[in-house]
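Database export, one record per block. Field names are fixed; values are copied verbatim from the stored entry.
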Amino acid sequence: MSFLSAISTISGGLWGQKTFDIAAPATDTALEDLPALAVDMETTGIKPARDTMLSIGWVPLNGRSIDLSGAGYVVVAGGEVGESATIHGLTDDEIALGVKPEEAMEQLLEALHGRVLLAHFAALETGFVHKHCRQLYDGAVPDLTVVDTFSLERRHMERMATYPRGEDLRLPRIRERYQLPHYNSHNALSDALACAEVYLAITAASRVHTLKDIRE
């Protein structure tokens, strides 16, 4: 059964926004038991209203374990890479062979069902998810529960009286501080894995215990 055909409840949310449930975990869920999905997208820019999604990578976490067997990566057809090719390395030929946006979003939502969305500077990912879901699901968006490693690390640094400056909150710089291995940036799958590992490092170093302590 496709995710679209499985959507049974679309309700009116805040300010009349229609939403549908993806069975996100309760806010009192302990981090040791928390199912999450680290997500990264490569796009033509940072503004969902005018820019295009080019690829999506995701990596599941079950509590404090990363499940690489559930990882996924799709290239999304329908866009032109333009100058963004210098950042992510995708070509128009690769994009032309990608999956349709609706198929890519359906795969992502199926992987996200029952999990929180974990991302670094998550406004980008949530913005593109909302954009495509409005187009695909009669204006409705998923009722996401979001954890942002950018915000997590900023709060952690502030609690430690070490205030972030410049590029301190970029994902590679955070990985350096936690002595995590270097990954090449701007591949959606490797960036999703990098985000998952940073999340585990930050939460291990912080006084946080439940989803309520870390959600946006």
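Remark 1: Residues 28-214 form a domain with the Nucleotidyltransferase; domain 5 fold (CATH 3.30.420.10).
Remark 2: Residues 188-205 form the longest helix (18 residues).
End of record.
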